[in-house]
């Protein structure tokens, strides 16, 4: 198995002299019988075997599968059974092995058999290894023959023998046992040479692991773990032998013993694997070196399976047993180092890794110079017959694999001598810092590493720093910084990674700080996509946090790399990386010193590049956030930032270049967003935050676009919100904390807030800023705050009452004002009549905007006002219009229930404040085309105000009361007087349902005593009478004329209805029946309306209609030409005369008077039409016309006499025709008269 041979089958073992036994060929079936028969207990051996079952079995490695670095080894493991701890404490590592000797290889493992038949046991051991190799070579690791259980048995027998031998050797101390101990050493060396190195085993063997442990039937599994078992117990045997005989070389063992166990090359600069002098390594040291090289082999094979990006996810050791062996070797070597001054594990590992580095370097040279050979892998003259290291796999090892091995060997120090995971970090190990620094220089000073490799190298450094605890970490941290300082302009992104890597560049100052603070967290929370630069920042945190000395070392190296020329040469990415470095240092170490240094460096960056300027501004803001978080004054940093801001604002105010304005606007937005974050995260307002506002932003706001303006206002909103939160606490109010911020905001932005609120589309946040500024200025500061309260009062009145202020802005102002806790107390200090103004403002926005989300959110706040809450007796509805109508009814009820005159006057004055000013938004609304539902809700609100609150909103002696202007804007706008202009369909529908309440409300005020009200009602009747159909059906619903509701079905007092009917009939008489030139369509609607009213209640209407309309109706019939109109008018005449005939109301004499008046006025000029109308009357009411005939006769005679022409034949003919139709003789008329 030694040399370069790859075959797993060893040569036949030579016969052993003096044993008396025939040597068994490994190919013989007798050998299988040798093992199988031994598995069946004979009666003679049964008793002893039963006793052996009682113990725990041999001490051997038991696999638990894949390696988990966080798990400890249990008590059933080899290290858990204290085989290592006992060995180091000079105790028997296998104290139970000889108490009940087991039978292996046909012989009990007694002291005599071990002493005199030692060669027999070692021979059988080699035969067992051979059989396991045969099984492992098969494609089926588990045989399907009768020998299914042979492989676990073979390994168990061999480890039982080694356990027994170790226990026996432990008891053989003294020179009298020298010959036996030398024989043991010889046999161990021959067995190790027979086994050979692990790199000669197939890969599936060296990676054979199983969570089943030793119950796994795989030959490959047991072959690998038998190799591990024999290597460990060989170390134990050689240790015990050396403890008795002293240090032994291979030559001093026995004459026929192997001359050397392994051959390994020297490291760079002539370094060898020996202890440090030029003496030949002892047998034990060679055995240990063999074990370490085999662990390296296992790691090589595991690491070469993965790419560099996946390497950090691989545990390193193929299974838990190889890890366990590494831990045992570590503690064994460190014990020898402490007690004997021998090599420690790190010295062993250092030699092996430096050899690999030498091979890697030679391999790199060979790639550049193809004729060069790898001297480190050339077999020496003495290499034949010994095990040659390193393995051929070393040619494939790259730098990342060496880093990875270095890290995994370092992790072994996380376990104690019993295999338990240590909670605390292990102490620094000699030479590891130097080796790490060497690795860093070799990896980064030569060929430029890729980003994948950089990420892996830095991950390893970070893990090592966490493991070692940070002492002397600046030695290798400085080497890392030397590399990264030369590559600050690199983006450290993976090729083809897309936009994933851009997440490392934060868009906000607070996001930058959060990212910086995340570098100080546990590395287990490190993101998978973090760049090598971000990992380096984590390393810097771990280095400088270790001690003040480490911080000073790194501080000097880092500061020396930055100066004015360097800052001007950096690209935007380099500037971002540099700023991130200083922010990381500031958050970890001396925040004031680093912040001042960073602000000084940022002020050196030229402003020629927009990309650099963005990073500079964010860097300043992030620095300020860090200082505020630590409770430090920010004045020094602001002093560096102010000149930069002043230059940008000056350019923004003077330039006319659109592209430049856009770029400068982006910087303003960055500053405003950072300013907002500063105040949102501030807990102490005494750290000069006000100086961030007084940089001249207010002077250039009118030059800014919508985006910049919104960002600045959001920042002011955050600032004032923080001030309000502070002022709400009395202890801060007494000290005047926040006064400087309030004064600066008012001085810088007060004029802008007032002016911009009157624009068409002010930002929504403007109202919020103005509201919070009002509240802040209303507080009683102890310091000099002259004029702030007066300014607060003026600002309140301006935003609530000024018509020029945008409705949305006013709404936002009121909402923000009332939403602040304790705002009512503060508002009362600046305006005692605030409640009426707020309600009036709410109603104005309600009329203008309808039930929008903003109005809905404001409504509950208005309902909680003290005065409003005292009026409303029930829980207010969510709908704003319903709440407003509830308020109207509550005011009316409160007014009517009050008994005292002064109380009534106080309620009226408050209500006048509530409802004043509604005419203007209503007029503006009617000029537009609002949504039908919006218009209907507004008119219903006004109708309720007329109907329920007429006594409150109308004062006859006060012309400025709300009712007259509401009448002019809602009921009688100027457009209504033009009969040619039809009403909008939605307005007509809305008025149709609301006019009755409005008219009834006017009527309830008492028309008889107020000519103005009479005139208003007459105009309403006059101009709306013809604009609605008398009766129409829509969607199976009959809709009647609105005047029918107010004249017939109104829920008002009877005297009010009578007054309204009287005015209505007067309007019909004067404006329609008695007026010429009226449209026939209008006449038809009016006549039909009167007919409809009479049909609903003829008895109520009969007398008044006859009194007011009979004579005008008869006159109307004289002049009508349109047949439809004439027919409808005739129907009305018939209705009147029929009612008069049936009810005798009015009296016959009254009716005769109307006929007499008609005849005398029209007989002279339109006799033919007159007699036609009289004929109709005669048909409808003959007694009435018969009683009127004398008057008709006298009128005819008087007309003839007046003309002086004698008899008028036309008159006589018409008169005679009338008499004829009535069947009356002329003589009867004269006799009766």
Automatic annotation (TrEMBL):
Sorted alphabetically, which InterPro entries does this protein's record hold? MMS22-like, MMS22L_C, MMS22L_N
Keyword match Transmembrane: no
**Where is region (Disordered) located?**
1-22
- What biological process terms from GO does the record include? chromatin organization; double-strand break repair via homologous recombination; replication fork processing
Which residue ranges does the record assign to the Protein MMS22-like N-terminal domain? 183-729
Q: Does the keyword Nucleus apply?
A: yes
Q: Keyword annotations for this protein?
A: Chromatin regulator, Chromosome, DNA damage, DNA repair, Nucleus
Compartments where located: Chromosome; Nucleus
Query: Where is each MMS22-like C-terminal domain found?
Result: 853-1222
Q: Name one GO cellular component term.
A: nuclear replication fork
UniProt record similarity statement = Belongs to the MMS22 family. MMS22L subfamily.
Which protein is depicted? Protein MMS22-like
Q: Which organism is it from?
A: Penaeus vannamei (Whiteleg shrimp)
Its taxonomic path starts at: Eukaryota, Metazoa, Ecdysozoa, Arthropoda, Crustacea
